[in-house]
Amino acid sequence: MNATELKATFDASLQRLAESDGSRAARRQAMAAFTRRGFPTRRDEDWKYTDLKPILTGRFDPLPGTPSQNHRRSTLNRLSSLELAPDTPQLVFVDGQRLTIGDSPGLPPGVEITDRHTAWQRIRSIQTEGQFREYPLTAINTAFSPDCTLIRVDANVIVAQPLHLIYLGGAAVNSAEQARLLIDLGANSRLCVVQHFAARDGGGWTNSVTQATQEPGSELTLHRLQEHAEEHFHTELLDVTLARDASARLGYVDLGGRLVRNDLRVRLAEPGASCDISGVFLAARGQHVDNHTRIDHIAPHTTSDEAFRGIVGERGRGVFNGKVVVHAGARGTDARQSSDNLLLSERGEVDTKPELEIYTDDVKCAHGATVGELDAEQLFYLRSRGIDEETARGLLIFAFANDLLRRIEVPELRKRVVTAVAGHLPDYEHWGGLL
Amino acid sequence: MSVHPKEITDLVRSRYEHGFVTDIEQELVPPGLDEDVVRLISRKKGEPEFLTKWRLKAYRHWITMDEPTWSHVRYPPIDYQAISYFAAPKNQDDAPKSLDEVDPKLLETYDKLGIPLHERAKLAGVAVDAVFDSVSVATTFKTRLAEAGVIFCSFSEAVREHPELVERYLGSVVPQRDNFFAALNSAVFSDGSFVYVPRGVRCPMELSTYFRINAANTGQFERTLVIADEGSYVSYLEGCTAPMRDENQLHAAVVELVALEDAEIKYSTVQNWYPGDENGVGGIYNFVTKRGDCRGANSKISWTQVETGSAITWKYPSCVLRGENSIGEFYSVAVTNNHQQADTGTKMIHIGRNSRSTIISKGISAGQAQNAYRGLVRVMPSARSARNYTQCDSLLIGDRCGAHTFPYVEARERSAHIEHEATTSKISDDQLFYCRQRGLSEEDAVNMIVNGFCREVFKELPMEFAVEAQALLNVSLEGAVG
User: Fold this and answer.
1) Could you tell me which residues are beta bridge partners of residue A91?
2) What is the tens place of the pLDDT at every residue in B140-159?
3) How far is the alpha carbon of A48 from chain B, nearest alpha carbon, in Å?
4) Which residues of A touch B420 (CB under 8 A)?
5) Sorting pLDDT into bands at 50, 70 and 90, what band is B209?
């Protein structure tokens, strides 16, 4: 799959893609921008440590067909294993398309999913050439996404229950899942979303774009859990814009996938906006996980707190690039960022780059980065209390991750994630009631 | 607490003290660069054939390279064909044997700069190899060094007297193809300093070179090579001031350090080239490649720099920690004011077992200046138990300046232990208030706080440099505070 092939596929299928949703102009603009930009390469500073070649050489079909009845049935069978709690409202997506499932709980009052016309209008109104230049994969998503979901929460609506969005990529072999989600939070509303990626069949590619716009005083919690099969490719952009006094809590957990690249862009556009970001990833057995974040402090008195923790095992590679930009005039900014990594294998690699770009003086900014193996003294402490080496290591690794995992607000999700992380560690079955 | 804007403007406008031009005869090669110019430079300097070939190889590679654009600095395109690549004082044939024979006008220049060459050298026990534009014209304390077996001379002299050492080590740390500016330097370098400390010798004094940039339109391309043989120690001081100029001057120096087994090199720099006026006009473009190679086991290279001058500073003194237990250090204070831009930092490449590195970087940004720290810590799989500690702090003075941090950490060895910390803040009102309350003027309070901020770096400087550096810092930032 190269840029020329993509363009040809696009030209041949634009008619069908844009048939009933008025997306033609937006898709065209995106494709034109992508043709000018092309796929990012390692010569691009933002892609220095992550090579998209495996995706480019994979013969992905950017246009997955409609899921077959068979697939639909097997998908539904898997759902029960992914559900958080029986009464949690959920939306299910297969290869980027939303499935309507009969008996799932309805949306809470005050939450609405708009028609696709409205959603595409929205996309068109916010997309820019600059955005596509920076995030070329977003242009591919816009050009090919089969569906587009806009979730809107009315002003002053507090949604108590989390909204569980399940993405099951891979209806067909070599399919590319172009998932597109928009979230609009009205003033002083509150919403918690769990974005749950779990492609089963190996070798597919998920390319997701989520854009959230928060009106003044709104609160968004977004947990993104990625549990793809180990041969799956995952790239995504999460783009959040916050108005006055709005706040966002964003949490990433990456457990699966072969090549994972998470782009996060947060714009603290008005005074008092704040965000709190955390991320935990496991990378072993040739997995490559790249977290790339950029936080723009555009207005005065905005705060951001960002913490990523990586556990890198055998032949794994963990990459972190966190950029904090404090714009001129954004006085009173408080920004903190940390990237801590456990490098547990001889053949693992960690590349971390916490960046600060600051254009005003009245700021408090700090970042830290660490790379190392387990602390020998802590190990010794546990060993001296009769815990065997394997278990001691497992406990310490778990504790390292759990510092951030305990921030997950949805209890069912926290339990699922904690169990999944612990499941990757040695000797976990002997921990007894520790979890 | 606030300072009156008028007061700030006045103080920020404090002029560059060392702005004057000595008018002495110069021998100039017409502007432009091609293979003939490279050959001409080599011939004029009477270089052996290997060096001419070496230069040509560098030139041929340079023309295939593009000027780097990744750094956080902006400047108008440099026309490399408008630069004259060679300037030497006229009376080169009968080069002076001692200070008395030196062109009195030259000495006058040094006097204006407050560098009483002979006196200061004697008093401070410092041997000064003063580089005036491109050719060394005065070297002192040679005898004492010769007794210890230390070779300290101009680069051209080293090429004549010790070609085998030059051939062996030149380009072994910074190869001709290393980067755009290093390649350019390799092709056209005019002169510089050469130090060789033999096995087991502790150099009896601190070696010092004062650089000056003088003739209009001549880029200066210094080449410095310091070799510390097994078990030796040397401390090298580099400092400079330059006359006021309206035209931007290009400076692309290369410094190579080689530390063999158990050797230690301490390299200190105070850089105070003309930074341009308050509107950002003029000023030196300083594109420097500095790298040290800890080649032997237990070797140590330590870089200390105080950067207050230049319109653009592009400089990353680095250490390749090849030897087992080798140590790399980088201590830096970078000050930018008005429209100055600095993109500076270090690279620590860990290859040897138990290699250790420390990075302490302090950036101070005032006016409309941009100050960036860019660093790399890379641990190769061979570097078992490697250790790095990095701390870079930025201080912002005024709301129109910028401070940036771009640290790269690349770890490929699990027993490595790497820590990086960075903070950015302004001088806090609380600190200022505390000092003012105790009767210090605002100016003194700021100086005290800034000096405290830089203390960790200053204490690494040799005594006489530390004093100079503090004074320089105060002058550079006078009144830029609010």
Assistant:
1) A165
2) 566 778 889 999 888 888 99
3) 11
4) 352, 354, 367-370
5) low
Task: Give the pairing type, strands A233-242 and A259-268.
Answer: parallel
Residue B453, token pair as written in the block: 């901020």
Q: What are the backbone angles phi and psi of residue B94, rounded to the nearest 5°?
A: -100, 70
Test mutation, A320, A361, A367, A397, chain B, max B CBs within 10 A: A361
Averaged pLDDT for residues A106-131: 91
Structure tokens at B286: 């300083």
Rounded Cα gap, residues A355 and B394, in angstroms: 13
> How would you classify residue B39: left for phi > 0, otherwise alpha for psi between -120 and 50, otherwise beta?
alpha
CB-based contact B317:B292 (threshold 8 Å): yes
Question: Contact B196/B188 with Cβ under 8 angstroms?
Answer: no
What count of other Cβ atoms lies within 10 Å of the Cβ of residue B381? 15
Task: Inform me whether the C-beta atom of residue B160 falls under 8 Å from chain A C-beta atoms.
Answer: no
ipTM (interface pTM)? 0.87
Kindly identify which residue of chain A lies nearest to residue B364, measuring between CA atoms.
A361
User: Kind of pairing, strands A349-358 and A317-326?
Assistant: parallel
- Is A57 or B228 the better-scoring residue by pLDDT? B228
CA atoms within 13 A on the CB side of A17: 27
For residue B425, give the nearest of A363, A367, A368 by CB distance: A363
- Distances from the Cα of A310 to the Cαs of A295, A403, B241, in angstroms? 20, 12, 47
Whether residue B429 lies within 8 A of chain A, CB to CB, comes out as no
Q: With contact defined as beta carbons under 8 Å apart, do A301 and A332 qualify?
A: yes
- Rounded average pLDDT over A59-67: 72
**How does pLDDT run across A46-60, given as a tens digit for each residue?**
999 999 998 888 778
According to DSSP H, which parts of A196-258 are helical?
Answer: none
| Average confidence (pLDDT) over A140-163 | 94
C-alpha–C-alpha distance, residues B86 and B221, integer Å: 9
The pTM of the full predicted model, rounded to 2 decimals, is 0.86
| Per-residue pLDDT, B248 | 55
Tokens 């001379």 belong to which residue?
A: B153
Residue of A nearest to B428 (CA): A362
CB contact under 8 A, B419 and A369: yes
Nearest CA in chain A to B368: A359
Per-residue DSSP letter, A58: S
Beta-sheet pairing, B87-89 with B26-28: antiparallel
Q: CB of B396 within 8 Å of any CB in chain A? A: yes
B1 contacts on A by Cβ (under 8 Å): none
Distance in Å, alpha carbon of B135 to nearest chain A alpha carbon: 40
CB pairs under 8 A between A and B: 111
Cβ proximity of A238 and A262 under 8 Å = yes
Residue given tokens 């850089």 in the structure block: B271
Q: Is the CB of A343 less than 8 angstroms away from the CB of B414? A: yes
- Which residues have C-beta within 8 Å of that of residue B100, sequence separation ≥ 6? none
Residues linked to residue A434 through DSSP beta bridges, in sequence order:
none
B407 near A CB under 8 A: yes
For chain A, the residue count is: 435
C-beta separation of B344 from B374 below 8 A: yes
